[in-house]
Write a structure and sequence with these properties.
There is one protein chain. Helix content is 0%, strand content 54%. The protein is an all-beta fold. It has a domain at 147-284. The strands form six sheets. Strands 5, 6, 7, 8 and 9 form a five-stranded antiparallel beta sheet that branches. It is globular.
Length: 284
């Protein structure tokens, strides 16, 4: 389930995490008069630069189609080629197809575009960078044996957050493109669910990158001022490095969202053998 904003229109889409041949996708749009279905089925995963809606999909390579809301059609006939490597990206009937995700920079800030996708038949992830409209995409990677990942942009910089299996638990790391501090390990072990987002101010070119992770049962939040990749801890109640409602309980599945001028954090938490409960905090 993903939500995107394009101008004054909100889009909500439900898509399979691993696309299989013929897997249905359901997308709705709302521009002020209630929700209405988008009749034209997106060919793949949805991404947006804030002004247009795009779909990243597989067709003898990796391609990017633009949505036309006036005709309710996807421009697959004129889609941009992100990667022409048909050995990495190919649709096999009955086989798990690539699960593309992506992020596109806001044109007011920069013209850089970053897209990412899991390849066919493995858990390797590739990243593609475009430095100007119409330019060829530059490949990076792979990030091998990736369990999950998030791709986002902050100005000219692109970030990929990724988790991988480790001997004692899950590893969480990141790579930063376009900056001398090009990434590293966030947590060597013990990381489970995670999320990342950009909170930006287009008028001042000020973008902060936030991420959250459940590490050994504690929900932790970190922020990078101006997207430099140097992380500051965002402390929870009582100045403790945990956002848990009860630090003695087990938390998982944290999610971030920008709410006006603040950051919202939601997560699940379980105490003992009791039920899982959903909690929410509003962060400055």
């Amino acid at each position: 389930m993903r939500g995107l904003r394009v101008g004054s229109t909100a889009y909500a889409t439900l898509q399979a995490r691993d696309f299989t041949a013929g897997a249905p996708q359901v997308t709705y749009a709302r521009s002020g008069g209630g929700w209405a279905p988008v009749t034209a089925t997106p060919p793949g995963a949805l991404v947006s630069d804030g002004s247009k809606l795009y779909s990243l999909y597989v067709e003898s390579g990796l391609k990017l189609a633009t949505y036309d809301p006036l005709t309710d059609t996807w421009g697959t006939g004129t889609a941009a080629v992100v990667s022409a490597d048909g050995s990495l990206f190919h649709a096999d009937a009955g086989v798990s197809n690539p699960a593309p995700v992506g992020a596109m920079s806001i044109p007011l800030l920069a013209s850089y575009t970053y897209l990412s996708s899991k390849v066919t038949n493995s858990n390797d992830v590739r990243v593609y960078q475009q430095t100007s409209a119409g330019a060829a995409f530059i490949p990076y990677g792979p990030w091998t044996n990736t369990l999950d990942h998030r791709m986002l942009t902050a100005g000219l910089n692109g970030y990929i957050f990724y988790s991988q299996p480790a001997a004692l638990g899950r590893f969480l790391g990141f790579t930063l493109f376009g900056n001398a501090n090009n990434g590293g390990t966030l947590f060597a072990t013990g990381a489970s669910g995670f999320d990342a987002m950009v909170r930006g101010n287009a008028a001042t070119y000020n973008t902060h990158v936030w991420y959250t992770a459940a590490v050994n049962g504690q929900v932790l939040v970190r922020m990078s001022v101006s997207g430099t990749g140097t992380w500051t801890s965002v402390l929870g109640p009582g100045g403790v490095d945990s956002m848990n409602n009860n630090p003695t309980c087990t938390a998982d599945s944290p999610e971030l969202a920008q709410l006006w001028d603040k950051v919202g954090l939601a997560w699940a938490e379980q105490c003992g053998g009791g039920p899982w409960r959903i909690y929410f905090r509003l962060l400055n």
